[in-house]
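Allow me, if you will, to draw on your knowledge of protein folds for a short while. I have a record of one protein: its chain in single-letter code and its fold written as discrete structure tokens. I should value your view on which stretches of the chain appear to form regular backbone elements. Thank you for your consideration; the sequence and its tokens are set out here:
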Amino acid sequence: LGGWLDAGYQKEQFIVNDHKEVNCERLRNQWFVEATTDAEFVINNVDILIIAVKPQSFFEFFSQFGKAITN
């Protein structure tokens, strides 16, 4: 995220998703971006979705986003 912001992208262009609210709060405070735990909100409000998931979180992530995509 920092690299994109350093490259000139605006913080308003990003919606960041994390399954933990504490991480969303940290992202809001550090980068001043919109951050949410709500996968459906993300799916309904982005044109491009970039996925960066740790291997151990893969199934949890796709379970959450899969539900949002089918709604």
About this structure: The longest helix spans residues 58-70. The first strand starts at residue 15 and ends at 17. The beta strands are 15-17, 34-36.
